[in-house]
């Protein structure tokens, strides 16, 4: 067996070998997260019940509405600039760190002041603020950007694995001690802290120095010019990913939020897949763009096809398993979550393709269109939620999410001429199950690699 794996490894080019290893690290970390968070999450969900779990989910969803402000849309911009301008890495990292730290403080203030104005539940107010305080450590995420630019995800994956186990152990302990609900909000804060400390440790372990980091106004302006469209788009994405739970709380109540949030956990837990693949493949796609437009377009289409195949397979599997899964793992108290899950899971193909398209927009410097498309999706989501939630509760929110995701992540591209060709590529990807000739070609290449 080891001999076969070694022979397979020898057939891969150094670049492809590095990408495969990187994806392997990311998948290992995220699968670990998926398994641990699912097991512990079920334990917590059953302990809290729909009402209290709904309050905790609402607090996190409200926090998440502002999360993009702290991120500043810098993630892929910083990775791109390090790959393309490696000699300026200390200046890029130092500037990005200052920008993210400042935006995190602003985000904490916005979250605290907003929750105090829109919600009268003191418990929900304090849980939301506690979660938000974790953003103090979010500036150190720029370390992860450096590792991504090197296609070296192992160290950060290790840090996140430690974070996963410590957070899971803490949640189990809290349930065992039967502590008040607000204690669970502190776990989110601790997760930010662990990730920050761990990132610093691995960065120094790889003989990198913070002393070389420099802040430059000119670099800040350049980063913000590219990232502001991504920031605005990310804000819109945050809204239409979490506004459903906020609106459910305001229109129906905490119990409905708890049932809906329990279903969505099974659906959104898969969203790590496109993130892991794109984080590893993006530098390779950028290099292909520099070599040849034909190679660049081919790699982009292949990425879209992979995204579509994986997401459609997951959606089919989860649709069939949704009701038995919920009944067995969560109990009768959450029975309605099965129907919600069967509807919500079909947002996945559009999310997967949207993540990949986002990288293409960055490479083409067309990020303004991401904001336009996402804004239209947000408007559609809010209007649909206002109409469907009073009629169908959590099921209505799931339908609204599916329609708005399809519109923002795919259909809206048909409204903007610069995106016409890319939208056709997305269309081909969505129909990949019936593109027999292309599938046979992919299968032949896979067999050649493993034979």
Automatic annotation (TrEMBL):
It is found in: Membrane. Keywords: Membrane, Transmembrane, Transmembrane helix. Its main location: membrane. One of its GO terms (cellular component) is membrane. The chain crosses the membrane at residues 20-45, 57-74, 95-118, 183-203, 223-241, 269-286, 306-326, 338-357, 369-392, 398-420. It is a multi-pass membrane protein. This is Polysaccharide biosynthesis protein.
């Amino acid at each position: 067996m080891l001999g076969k794996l070694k022979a397979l490894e020898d057939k891969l080019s150094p670049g492809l070998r590095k990408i495969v290893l990187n994806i392997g690290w990311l998948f290992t970390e995220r699968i670990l997260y998926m398994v641990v968070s699912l097991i512990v999450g079920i334990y917590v969900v059953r302990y809290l019940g729909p009402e209290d779990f709904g309050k905790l989910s609402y607090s996190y969803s409200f926090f998440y509405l502002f999360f993009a402000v702290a991120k500043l849309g810098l993630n892929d911009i910083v990775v791109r600039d390090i790959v393309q301008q490696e000699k300026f890495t200390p200046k890029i990292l130092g500037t990005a760190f200052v920008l993210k730290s400042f935006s995190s403080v602003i985000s904490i203030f916005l979250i605290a002041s907003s929750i105090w104005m829109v919600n009268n539940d003191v418990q929900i107010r304090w849980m939301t603020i506690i979660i938000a305080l974790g953003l103090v450590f979010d500036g150190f995420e720029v370390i992860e950007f450096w590792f991504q630019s090197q296609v070296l995800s192992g160290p950060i994956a290790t840090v996140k694995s430690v974070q996963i186990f410590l957070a899971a152990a803490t949640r189990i302990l809290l349930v065992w001690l039967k502590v008040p609900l607000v204690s669970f909000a502190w776990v989110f804060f601790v997760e930010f802290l662990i990730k920050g400390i761990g990132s610093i440790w691995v960065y120094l372990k790889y003989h990198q120095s913070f002393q070389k980091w420099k802040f430059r106004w000119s670099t800040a302006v350049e980063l913000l010019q590219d990232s502001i469209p991504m920031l605005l788009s990310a804000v819109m994405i945050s809204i239409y990913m979490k506004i459903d739970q906020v609106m459910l709380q305001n229109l129906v109540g905490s119990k409905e939020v708890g049932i809906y949030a329990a279903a969505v956990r099974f659906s959104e837990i898969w969203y790590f897949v496109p993130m892991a693949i794109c984080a590893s493949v993006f530098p390779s796609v950028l290099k292909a763009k520099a070599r040849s437009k034909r190679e660049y377009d081919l790699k982009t289409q292949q990425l879209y096809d992979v995204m579509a195949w994986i997401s459609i397979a997951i959606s089919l599997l989860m649709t069939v398993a949704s009701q038995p899964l919920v009944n067995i793992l969560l109990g009768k108290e959450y029975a309605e979550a099965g129907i919600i899950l069967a509807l919500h899971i079909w947002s996945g193909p559009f999310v997967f393709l949207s993540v990949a398209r986002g990288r293409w927009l960055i490479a083409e410097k067309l990020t303004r269109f991401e904001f336009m498309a996402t804004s239209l999706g947000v408007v559609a989501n809010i209007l649909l939620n206002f109409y469907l939630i009073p009629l169908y509760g959590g099921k209505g929110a799931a339908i609204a999410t599916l329609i708005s995701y399809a519109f923002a992540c795919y259909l809206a591209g048909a409204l903007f001429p610069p995106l016409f060709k890319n939208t056709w590529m997305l269309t081909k990807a969505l129909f990949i199950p019936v593109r027999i000739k292309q599938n046979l070609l992919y299968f032949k290449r896979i067999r050649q690699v493993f034979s």
